[in-house]
């Protein structure tokens, strides 16, 4: 009889062996947790489509940030849903606006916690789009870029450790970098949503961030899910304009994009495990169809294995608890 000359199973025969030779490992330092801030006090409003996730008033967000920091979560990504919405996204540029208040309050309470501020117009506009809308209903790129830079500067002044433009307008990284540098914020990093796809996995997020478009869709500025060469073009353009980190969003359906971006660049690569990915796992686990812990860890390991240095995930606190156990 012939026998195999190589036996890879030798190092798979026990959990101790499997852990010893594991190639890809999740690290607590690699996670960023999204936080949704809304007006009011003592507000902790559950997001129906995202079990375990709530919209928080600033005072509750501070409590949450303290708890997360104590758990070892290294960073937050902040989204704000102000009450005042208008065509110019005035609340996002307001130094006393909701986002600026939240950033300042969290940084004062948790100075060592890294706060990334999402920079977009959708949550502060009455039309819900990520840029300014012309009379003809189109998204005007260049006027939007000017406003986005002003929003980024406002958040940097409030104390954000990084600004994260998520709008996908052309040239916004360059404009943000120039305005930050001109106003004394040359050390504030830009985390660019460089390859953000027009995905069907964003639905629950739009409930949490109150940012659904009032008309049309975002396909004229977010990327076509079929394209990967275009993603590399977007990433390289943003790095040339001054991005310090680049992001692929969503993560799970775009592991090939993460891999190609990782191979093409030398800056940190961030992947966003988005709300739809989170809610799908939660819904299946609630019905007993999958093991939640196993599915979460497998999905995140896949994202890490694809090349992501950092992962934005709503599972971050759970994962850190599991990693400590």
Give a brief rundown of this model.
By secondary structure, the protein is α/β, with parallel strands linked by helices. It contains 12 helices and 12 strands. The chain has a domain at 25-246: Alpha-Beta Barrel (TIM Barrel).
- What does the oligomeric state look like here? single chain
Give the radius of gyration: 20 Å
Helix content: 40-55%
Major sheet characteristics: 10 strands, mixed
CATH level 3 topology of the domain at 25-246? TIM Barrel
Written account of the structure:
The structure is a single chain. This protein is of the alpha/beta class and 325 residues long. The protein has a domain at 25-246: TIM Barrel (Alpha-Beta Barrel), CATH 3.20.20.70. The protein contains twelve helices and twelve strands. The strands form two sheets. Strands 1, 2, 3, 4, 5, 8, 9, 10, 11 and 12 form a ten-stranded mixed beta sheet that branches. Strand 6 (132-133) and strand 7 (139-140) form a beta hairpin. Helix 6 packs parallel to helix 8. It is globular and about 80 Å long. It starts with 14 loop residues before the first helix and ends with a helix. The mean pLDDT is 96.
Write the topology of this structure.
Layout: H1 15-20, E1 31-37, E2 44-46, E3 54-56, H2 58-71, E4 75-80, H3 90-93, H4 98-109, E5 114-119, E6 132-133, E7 139-140, H5 141-158, E8 162-165, H6 172-182, E9 191-196, H7 203-209, H8 229-241, E10 245-249, H9 255-264, E11 269-273, H10 275-286, H11 292-306, E12 310-313, H12 316-324
Parallel strand pairs: 1-3, 1-4, 1-12, 4-5, 5-8, 9-10, 10-11, 11-12
Antiparallel strand pairs: 2-3, 6-7
Helix pairs in contact: 2-4, 4-5, 5-6, 6-8, 8-9, 9-11
